[in-house]
Amino acid sequence: MSLRPDAAGPERLVVGAGISGLYAALLLARAGRRVRLLERAARPGGLAGAEVFRGLPCDLGSHRLHPAALEQPLFREVHARAPFLTRPRRGVLVLGERHVPYPPSAPSMLRALGLRAGAAMGLGFVAQRGRRAAFARWERDRAIAGEDVGFERFVRDRVGAAAYASFYRPYAEKVWGIPPAELSQTVAKKRISTTSPLALFKELARARGGAAADLARFVYPPGGISSIIAYLEARLAEAGVRAECGAAFDLAALGARAGAAPVLFAGDLADLVPDARLEHRGLYLVYLAYPRARVGTPETYYCPDPRFWFGRVSELQNYAPDLRRPGETVLCVEIPEGAWGRGRDFAAGRPLEALLDQLVRAGIAPRGVAPVEARQRFVPNVYPLYRRGWLQDWRAAMRRAAALGALPFGRQALFLHCNLDHCAAIAADAVAHVEAGQSPEAWVLNAERYLDVQVRD
Ligand SMILES: Cc1cc2nc3c(=O)[nH]c(=O)nc-3n(C[C@H](O)[C@H](O)[C@H](O)COP(=O)(O)OP(=O)(O)OC[C@H]3O[C@@H](n4cnc5c(N)ncnc54)[C@H](O)[C@@H]3O)c2cc1C
After folding, report:
1. 285 in ligand 1 pocket by Cβ < 6 Å?
2. In the record, what terms sit under GO molecular function (predicted)?
3. Are 135 and 16 members of one domain?
4. Which pLDDT score is estimated for 134?
5. Is there a domain that residue 457 lies in?
């Protein structure tokens, strides 16, 4: 147990040492509390941790900070100590064999799709009766209320059959591995409707007009995303708090705490409410070291095409120049668990050969150059699987957790698809809530507002 010698009052127990739990523990320690921090894994970090490959701290999949993250006090603090890099965004959308700059412009999309598919999609957007009204309703419909019509209907109604069939359906099938009609409309709201399509195009036009638009750049810590975790660990160590790793906290442990202060729980909700019917999907990461100074300029390739197993591929050094070894470059290939299930190995034998071939066909990896090393890591609990009707289960699970004396926060416990800065902001809210002496019941009543958080890619 790590206690701050001069800390006062009842001990605060924080579970989960991802960014949410670490930041909550730090805020509590700074408020003069005795803090105990439990982590199930061997190391802190959660999804913001690193896989050390070829001596480099590789992110667990493509991570970047939206410039708006700098409005959040934690990120301002880290930035003040070790300034983030500001990087131009050089993403690429891989459509078949064509590459379209991402975020895309309307003309580049049309060029890539070809005249026929482009015209069908354009007509789909504008011609269907009620389309304008559907766009107008886009923002209003994001409020989680009423009937869940499902992903398929929600998206088709708004973007038309052609756009749905070309992008949204294959993407949803690849990531989730269940028929899109069984997915909740929440997936569309969170993953796709960052804002309405019309607003997005307006924003893109502004970005191309030269304004310092947030879509055209991102910020990134020079030492990789896990350097934010290292920063938090260092500040916590100064406050006398260390995460106890290899220490899972579950339902049984909660029972033993009757009468104690609420547990700030940023772990996996399923550990507290095992019958909640709220599943996650994981992600296979395949790290490939190529004997090349660089394979391309894009930092991320987005690949909705169902012929390719991966949804995204990133080249590490294009996030931060320090993340490279001389004469070598690392690609991180993200293969959603989707319909594969767990226990596959994509980093050896035939699957690796097939994967390398796909990377060449997608125009990402060089032809005739074999990687010098390949390594796979499977990351569980990455994406909440929002099935139709999940919200009722979520509400019941939140009530159960609160009744047990736990205050769920963070991505896994709140069943959220959210960014790092959202996690930090929610952790600060959770700490303020317990410090004000408020109950877990009051917290879960208000927690529904976090469901509307929009993930930014
Ligand atoms: C591929 C990928 C790309 C991403 N890209 C971006 C991006 O570009 N920008 C961005 O801002 N964000 C991005 N994110 C999101 C960001 O990484 C997460 O939102 C954030 O790291 C979640 O932090 P967390 O602490 O809430 O949860 P987690 O990181 O999941 O941490 C939870 C911790 O709790 C532990 N735990 C679970 N159950 C228990 C238990 N019972 N007892 C003890 N410990 C437990 C886990 O081991 C884990 O360490 C991305 C995430 C992924 C996976």
Report:
1. no
2. flavin adenine dinucleotide binding; UDP-galactopyranose mutase activity
3. no
4. 52
5. no
Classify residue 38 as exposed, middle or buried by CB count within 10 Å of its CB (0-12, 13-18, 19+). buried
d(CA 52, CA 70): 27
pLDDT digits (tens, 9 = 90+) for 228-261: 999 999 999 999 999 999 999 988 888 777 777 8
Ligand 1 atom with least separation from CA of 20: 25
Instruction: Report the residue among 47, 265, 431 best suited for mutation to probe ligand 1: largest number of ligand atoms under 8 A from its CB.
Output: 47
102 pocket-lining for ligand 1 (C-beta < 6 Å) = no
Contact in structure between 88 and 64 (CB atoms under 8 Å): no
**Which structural domain range is residue 413 located in?**
8-49+225-278+387-452
Give me the residue label for tokens 């095992």: 274
Q: Which residues of 361-374 are buried (b: 16+ CB within 10 A; e: fewer)?
A: bbbbbeeeeebeeb
Ligand 1 centroid vs 162 CA: distance in angstroms? 35
Identify the domain boundary among 384, 414, 434.
384
Alpha carbon 286 to chain centroid, angstroms = 17
Instruction: Let me know whether 188 and 44 are in one domain.
Output: no
> What is the position in ligand 1's atom list of the atom closest to the CA of 16?
34
Instruction: Give the nearest ligand 1 atom to 64 CA.
Output: 8
- Does ligand 1 have an atom closer than 6 angstroms to the CB of 38? yes
pLDDT in tens, 167-202: 788 888 888 889 999 999 888 776 654 444 444 445
Rg, Å, the chain Cα set: 22
Q: Is residue 112 part of a domain?
A: yes
| Average pLDDT value for residue range 5-27 | 88
Q: Does 213 sit in the ligand 1 pocket, CB within 6 Å?
A: no
Total domain count for the chain?
Answer: 3
404 and 268 fall within a common domain: yes
